[in-house]
Design brief:
The protein is mainly alpha-helical. Helix content is 66%, strand content 0%. The two termini are 40 Å apart.
């Protein structure tokens, strides 16, 4: 092998992949005791929280109005498409690590770090925002005395920061982090009890809302809102007064407001990915994980849809309380005592949501630290409690600081952009993975018959690949439209290029429809022409990807409608990202800059996969866990198998 130059060697270091070949994906020293029902309860418990009890009021008042139900529908569709992509990876690689592991074994180390770093962002902000919501709900029960005290003596007058530091949320996060660091065996049944109480309270809210609600709250006229604005701003006349509450009706802020609300409402469905972190603790992960993800998302959507509809029917959207909308809404309809039932239910829901956010966070940090991408001290396991002690306490401390300083809206938007990016990467990985020439997940026990059959299949595949490469030494339109019947390196490279082109087209389409919507609405020729070109290119690119041959390996669950569903998942996720404010992107860029600093200063040199490849000819060769192998290299070698077994034994003893 010719020695690669420094630049090529550096690039190969960025795209090296985690090697899980040799691992039996069914083996786990963890107890496989969770059923499908347990996963559904875990997903629902971690998802139903601030989205119902806090976020619905804020988004309905400032962005969507009564059309918040449509915002939740759009966000649910985006989440379901992302959830199906998670489900396929959960069926293919049922190991602990969630999207970080899936990206590492499929695309490469740099993208895996980006995915894991964004997951950490999502979990930290999820913990912070839910803690603030818990604090706000508890403060409402006490007549807002806590908020009044801190607002009087600790007021902060800075943009992007909270009105006052939330000491109670800090105490709650640190307390729960301390409890989790001492063990989480009892958390399963506590989660089920709190989730059951939450569901009962939400049913009570929905029934009460439809009983006491008024359909006229969805049909408020613009004239009435203009008069209300004039009274609010002490205007002597209603002439030349613009309503500060929108144009009224079902969509008072227009469809753009509904879409902007959907970007924030996406936060309400974050939590299902915690199901993917339980891959080694489920009895039948290949079936239980996909069912658990889809069913939990369906249950959550029904709850969000019903509660937000009931809320906006009970009370006009412009009167909603942003901190604690449901108790105030019951006061408005004359059912004052019901607010205590809602408050108890919301505290139970926020408790399970807080647990669902903070529980998987140290696991992702631990997985990255164990692979060498983060500091090794974060991978330390307590000998007494068998929990990642340092990762739990350090991540809890960061979440506490963010809850102490930032307001809920800023936290939610930052979490939305990090989660949407992670979901986009997972969908991209599914799209790339299914068109690879060959995928290996584990070393089967040696059998001469199986080895001969596999060698025969590989020879035929490689022969066709060689014929294609002889016939087509360079890229041609004929090879793009009429590729070979079996996936080859050439078709895989073509798909990789097309997926990159697809991402660029999606970014352009999202920016145009977000910032050029007024030009499109006015039928400006240039905007209509550009929109038509982007849409046509997007569809043609998807059709070209669809023409390429897929890998024929079957698993228990596979994403349907490939490549359309993952492509539209990427489109929805990126579009919702573009909807977020510039300040959110600035804060997010600081987070990513910190991550890249850690990776290029520490992770790239301490990567476990980099150390494993030091004995090879190329120190930065790609080590793919879902890799294509040379036919000669795939011949069973007992020595290599022993090395894999030794590495696996080391891994199993290092895990909790």
């Amino acid at each position: 092998m010719l020695p690669c130059g420094p630049a090529l060697s550096f690039v190969r270091c960025l795209v090296r992949k985690k090697n899980v070949s040799g691992e039996s994906l069914e083996d786990s020293k963890l107890c496989r005791c969770l059923s499908t029902v347990d996963l559904i309860a875990l997903g629902v418990g971690s998802t139903l929280g601030a989205g119902v009890y806090v976020l619905a009021g804020e988004v309905a008042k400032s962005d969507s109005g009564p059309s918040i139900v449509v915002s939740f529908l759009i966000a649910a569709l985006a989440s379901v498409m992302a959830g199906l992509c998670y489900a396929e990876f959960g069926a293919r690689v049922p190991k602990t690590g969630s999207a970080y592991l899936y990206t590492y074994v499929t695309v490469g180390e740099l993208w895996a770090f980006i995915t894991g770093w964004n997951l950490i962002l999502s979990y930290i902000i999820g913990t912070s925002s839910v803690a603030r919501a818990w604090s706000g709900t508890f403060d409402e029960l006490l007549g807002k005395q806590i908020g009044y005290f801190f607002r009087s003596y600790f007021k902060m007058n800075y943009s992007g920061l909270a009105e006052y530091p939330d000491f109670f949320a800090v105490f709650l996060i640190l307390l729960l982090s301390g409890l989790l660091s001492f063990g989480v065996k009892e958390s399963a049944w506590v989660n089920k009890i709190f989730t059951a109480i939450n569901i009962l309270v939400l049913l009570f809210v929905m029934i009460s809302g439809f009983v006491k609600g008024d359909a006229d709250n969805w049909k408020i006229s613009e004239e009435y809102l203009i008069n209300l604005t004039a009274v609010t701003e002490n205007c002597s006349s209603c002439e030349n007064v613009t309503s500060i509450y929108g144009s009224g009706g079902f969509m008072p802020y227009g469809f753009t407001g509904t879409l902007a609300g959907a970007a924030t409402c996406f936060y309400a469905f974050v939590g299902f990915d915690c199901i993917a972190t339980t891959g080694e603790e489920v009895k039948n992960p290949q079936k239980a994980i996909p069912i658990g993800i889809v069913v939990s998302l369906l249950v959550c959507f029904m709850a969000y849809f019903g509660v937000s509809a009931a809320l906006t029917l009970m009370m006009p959207y412009y009167l909603l309380d942003e901190k604690s909308p449901l108790p105030v809404a019951f006061e408005y309809v004359g059912w004052g005592p019901a607010k205590y039932v809602v408050a108890v239910g919301s505290l139970c829901a926020l408790s399970t949501s807080l647990l669902g956010s903070i529980f998987p966070m140290p696991r992702v940090i631990y997985a990255m630290a164990k692979d060498g991408l983060l500091f090794k001290c974060l991978a330390q396991i307590s000998s007494k409690t068998k929990t990642p002690l340092v990762a739990t306490l350090s991540s809890g401390a960061v979440a506490a600081i963010m809850a102490f300083l930032f307001d809920l809206k800023a936290l939610v938007d930052m979490m939305s952009i990090g989660t949407l990016l992670a979901y986009s990467l997972v969908a991209t990985c599914v799209l790339i993975l299914r068109y690879q020439p060959s995928l290996t997940y584990e070393q089967p026990k040696y059998s001469p018959e199986k080895a001969a059959l596999a060698a025969s299949e590989r020879e035929s595949a490689v022969s066709e690949s060689q014929i294609n490469m002889i016939q087509e030494n360079h890229f041609s339109l004929q090879a793009l439209i009429n590729p070979s019947s079996l996936p080859t390196e050439q078709t895989a490279t073509t798909v990789n290029f097309l997926v990159g082109l697809l991402a660029c087209l999606v970014c352009g389409l999202s920016v145009l429809t977000t910032y050029g919507i007024h030009f499109i609405a006015n039928l400006e020729p240039w905007s209509i022409g550009l929109l038509a070109v982007l849409v046509a290119s997007f569809l043609v690119t998807i059709l070209l990807i669809q023409r390429q041959p897929q890998n024929q390996q079957k698993v228990a669950f596979m994403v349907p409608l490939l490549p359309f569903l993952p492509s539209f998942s990427i489109l929805v996720n990126i579009y919702l990202m573009v909807q977020l404010s510039g300040d959110t992107w600035i804060r997010f860029s600081f987070w990513m800059a910190l991550g890249f600093l850690i990776y290029f200063a520490y992770g790239i040199r301490h990567s476990l996969e980099g150390h494993h490849s030091n004995g090879d000819d190329d120190s930065c060769s790609e080590n793919s866990g879902l890799q294509e192998k040379n036919p000669v290299e795939e011949v069973y070698e007992p020595e290599n198998a022993n090395e894999s077994d030794q590495f696996l034994a080391h891994e199993r003893t290092s895990e909790c």
